[in-house]
Amino acid sequence: MDDLVLLHAFPLDARMWDVPGALTPSLRGHGEPDLDTAAAQVLAVLDERGLGTVVLGGCSMGGYVAMALLRRAPERVKGLVFVDTKHTADAPEAVETRHAMADRVEREGVGEWLADAMLPNLLAPDASDTARALVRTMILEQRAEDVAWWQRAMAKRPDSTDVLESLDVPSLVLVGEHDKLTPPDVAAKLAVTLRRSTSERIENVGHLPPVEQPDEFRARLERWRVQVGL
């Protein structure tokens, strides 16, 4: 899978992926908050590794960054994997919530309050203790400046319908059965926006299937790649 690139969710990092051989960069905030800047970071990593075209995947925020990359360089992507993400812009109330969290992180730093606020929305109610511990650790170890930057960048992301409708590459859309943030009906709307999509729901997980059921996630990904010839 040396041509597979996976972009992590908010507010996590590359440790959320357990996919041997995949390139899993940890995104960092830099400059004016804008996901286009994050996409440029990913493209720079691809260039450093000598990767021309890749199968690009993203979970939640990682999906937003993948869409930003598609606006910049669609020719670099030969296949897409969208995990618990959406292609539409935030509603005004969601934008306000993002900015409020960014402001609080800058005032108070990253702490247990952030993990306590995020975990119920990220994991299914019966998620394993191992998954809960890993997600909590990742959240607590993020830099406050990155968390604030990511929230402000996501708050102003555009609708990506036009970008996705213009693509003609195989796409896999995965969603957790109990995802509260981007539930199955949202994933269904994303899937119909893509020309060549395979849409699947993973049972008994929430917003983070690669963390909650890593074996099942890898199996779905590998089966799809075989089916579409990637």
Automatic annotation (TrEMBL):
GO MF: hydrolase activity
Pfam families: Abhydrolase_6 (PF12697)
Keyword check for Ribosomal protein: no
Occurrences of domain AB hydrolase-1 (ranges): 4-219
InterPro entries in alphabetical order: AB_hydrolase_1, AB_hydrolase_fold, AB_hydrolase_sf
UniProt KW keywords: Hydrolase
Descriptive protein name: Alpha/beta hydrolase
Native source species: Lentzea cavernae
